[in-house]
TrEMBL record:
Keyword line: Repeat, WD repeat
WD repeat coordinates: 75-108, 118-159, 167-201
Annotated segments matching region Disordered: 1-38
Lineage: Eukaryota, Metazoa, Chordata, Craniata, Vertebrata
Protein name: WD repeat domain 31
InterPro entries (alphabetical): WD40/YVTN_repeat-like_dom_sf, WD40_PAC1, WD40_repeat_CS, WD40_repeat_dom_sf, WD40_rpt, WDR31
Provenance organism: Xenopus tropicalis
Signal peptide limits: none
Biased composition range(s): Basic residues: 1-13
SMART domains xref list: WD40
């Protein structure tokens, strides 16, 4: 195993954080720009230092300049809601998955239509992970299967299925041939992309696992779960070098935690992670202690669906009711979090 052995209710006050001490002070509304999507934004990812890609219920994939809030390219090809977007940061290729059971490949500087189609799943595609060299694509679905694709040919070269493994998210481990996967069966699995076999599993959680992320050094994995009334709704830190137990938990959301991610070094004074939830809040946590460093309530945004980090100190948040927010952290003020743009 190499490294692994060594190593919503809209505008509802009930979603506000219970601990007022954690909340950021009231801030004026962020500058408004034309919305990238005409409906709920379901997913977002960083594409380049100034570009992001997002998908929505409007069936569109949109490339935006997140610094200015302007939509640069609107890619249309899916027949139903876009569920996931993925890319290798800095590349010109981006991938999108949809409820129409397809995955599409787009070229940032190419034609508006997709350059490749990946067809093979029997139900909604809910997981998408691209290898660092952009040659392999792993997809997961509610049909309980994972598929491995050759990006150039669009051919499915391997697939694997596990009963009740309703995939919720996939994330590639940097520098390794492994992919972390979360599922509705409450399991967290690590797949070896070379033979598409499960290499590791973590102890089963009590709630459905919604999302996962892996630290840049490839040592840690972060997952988050659904829940309600403050039960569940947490994020969990795991050590990929040993899978006996969790390292830390981050508790404080009142509704399902939909997304979690590691923040780049330098964002805060200490290593930190971020979460977004259906309770309209984005939280920043001290990675080691689990202490909540910052809490931002996005009033009227509805459930928060996805997060992305494009550079140190900047966080993008996709929402159901209010498009995409660009947020800024201030490590000098205890990881304070404020709105910058809304597009």
């Amino acid at each position: 195993m190499g490294k692994f052995q060594s190593k919503v209710k809209r505008n509802s006050s009930k979603y506000r954080a219970e601990s007022r001490g954690e909340e950021s002070p009231p801030v004026p509304p962020s500058p408004q720009h034309s919305r990238a999507h005409t409906d709920a934004v379901t997913c977002i990812a960083a594409l380049k230092s100034d570009l992001c890609v997002s998908g929505g219920k409007d069936k569109a994939v949109v490339v935006s300049n997140w610094r200015t809030g302007s939509a640069l390219k609107r890619l249309v090809g899916h027949e139903r809601e876009v569920t996931k977007v993925s890319c290798v940061f800095g590349s010109n290729r981006l991938f999108s998955a949809s409820r129409d059971k397809s995955v599409l490949l787009w070229d940032l500087h190419g034609k508006l239509g997709p350059t490749q189609r990946f067809m093979g799943h029997h139900l909604i595609v809910t997981g998408l992970a691209v290898s660092p060299d952009c040659r392999l694509l792993l997809t997961g679905s509610r049909d309980n299967t994972l598929c491995k694709w050759d990006v150039e040919s669009g051919r499915c070269v391997q697939n694997a299925g596990i009963c009740r493994n309703l995939v919720t998210h996939l994330c590639w481990v940097p520098g390794e041939p492994y992919v972390v996967q979360t599922s509705e069966d409450k399991m967290i699995r690590v797949w070896d992309s070379r033979d598409l076999q499960v290499a590791l599993t973590f102890p089963m959680k009590q709630y459905i696992q919604m999302h996962c992320d892996v630290s840049q050094d490839g040592n840690y994995c972060l997952t988050c779960s659904n829940g309600f009334g403050g039960q569940g709704c947490e994020a969990t830190l795991w050590d990929l070098r040993q899978t006996r137990d969790k390292v830390c938990e981050y508790r404080g959301h009142l509704q399902s935690a939909a997304c979690c991610m590691f923040l780049p070094a330098g964002t805060c004074e200490t290593p930190a992670v971020a979460t977004s939830a259906h309770d309209c809040t984005v939280k920043i946590w001290d990675q080691s202690s689990g202490a909540c460093l910052s809490n931002l309530f996005l009033d009227g945004a509805g459930p928060l669906s996805s997060l992305a980090v494009c550079d140190t100190g900047s966080i993008l948040c996709a929402t159901f009711n209010s498009g995409i927010f660009s947020l800024q952290t201030d490590g000098a003020k205890g990881a304070g979090l404020r709105q910058v743009l809304n597009f």
